[in-house]
Write a structure and sequence with these properties.
By secondary structure, this protein is an alpha+beta fold. It has 5 helices and 34 strands.
Amino acid sequence: MRPERKMSLLSMVVLGVFAVAMLSVLTSVHFRERRAGILADNELQRLKKEQVLAPDNAELKERIRDLDQGMRTDYYTNRRRFLWAGYILLATAVAWILAARRVFAPPAARTVPERRSRPTDGGRATWVLAVSGGILSLVLVYAGVAWRPALPPAGWTSDVEARQFGAAIPRGAESAVEPNWPCFRGPGNIGLAADGDWPTTWSVATNRNILWKTPVPAEGKSSPVVWGNRIFLTGGTATEHRVVCFDRSTGELLWNSRVTGIDLSDREIAVMEDTGFAASTPTTDGERVYAIFATGIAAAFDFDGRQAWVRDLGAPESMYGFAASLLFAEGAVVLQFDQGADADEGLSKLVGLSPDRGEVVWSIPRPVPNSWSSPALIPAPGGVQLIACGAPWVIAYDLKNRREVWRAEGLDGDVAPSPAFGGGMLFVTNDGADLLAIRPDGAGNVTDSHIAWRADLGVPDISSPVSNGRRVLQSAAGGLLTCFDAAKGELVWEKHLESSASSSPIVAGERVYLTGIDGVTRIFDMDGDAYHERGHGEIGEAAYATPAFVESRIYIRGANNLIAVGKTP
């Protein structure tokens, strides 16, 4: 082989090795970017989900902005690198083809006739050039197209997140769910309100910041839920169950519908005065409102008050009267139907009802006795989890796959408080046990591995805890408030209030709102080193339900009236 052909062949080898090496590096960067880059970053997704639950957290917003900006800078830097790599690969391909032409070019004319086998060099050269050109073309297409994934939007898809946290968008609608309060303690049953210009003082007696006050024509302790311009409550007795609807703007009673199609006359259900027959808060998906009563009767009504269906789930065996609230998640009305004096009776289950017909579409057995806690939805590294509490287990479920994800042992006695979530941590508590902080990223029995800390001071018997991500607060019987550092579990402050509360605290903006049985809502800071009250409101009657917080207005169910609170001139 002539020296120039040897040099061209060497060039082909070098250029080929270079192209393969560059392709390998680009492939490695591509898959590494998919695993940990802007397209699939677990940390960013976790922070954004926390932002949905804590929209007023300025520090969290800043962390999201910094992380998002850094990832987008990396994204565009990689895009430029891939573009220049494509140019280099293109130049390499051209140089490789030129070298290949020199190697496989026909020899100059000779005086001695060639052998008949020699002309096959031209055919071999054509084949090599065609194959190599095709391969390098595919490489260039792959480098130029496959490594250009779509950049996710900088904003947050509130409609998707709303579905994940139990506040379902109406079928076919595209509006965000933020202006609504679709279940007990707001979206996901977490106790966090959206940003708003929330009032810090009001009085029914003086009409200060009172928008309207309307009598409630049904006996019950369920909390109000809100969708659009409608507010829903439930009420009833041993022989009659009702769902009531009010106009959110004016307080006008729109309809008061009785549950029909079920005979309650011969159903013997024992309930305590503290619960009654309508302690469970309803839920709504924007098309219907769904209710459950202590008798085990579930029903659905459309927004005009027409009964869509009624379902008899059987009279629950509950010591104090059934009181768990409903939640809408993964296209089903979810009910934590815990009952029986002993878990061995096998009566407890998590139930999903069809929103259209009320049929039981799925059921998951639960190894717990009767409880009065309501399920909550939280964001976790592996996806949204439904958390249900009952002695002795805290259990996380994946509703998409209808399976248990993890469980932790630590509850005892009569479990009534619902879970709280903040700062990536789950908080559960009840009188007779401890306040537990649990990392929700485990699998199986995580009792020994994922309980970050526990505290035994100020645990509540009814009221649910709440967290803003930095602190976790709980309200015990007798009016004792305890505030803990969410990360370390250290007691930050405690305060004895004049009144106990059966309602749950709500974080709204930078403050906490806690409505006592005396009808007084105490408004205070959560992040200080001591209890600092920033205001209070009075409705002039007893209050047992947890208020709803929607668009800078607070809707409080008193013993006799529904009151709308908002800033007025």
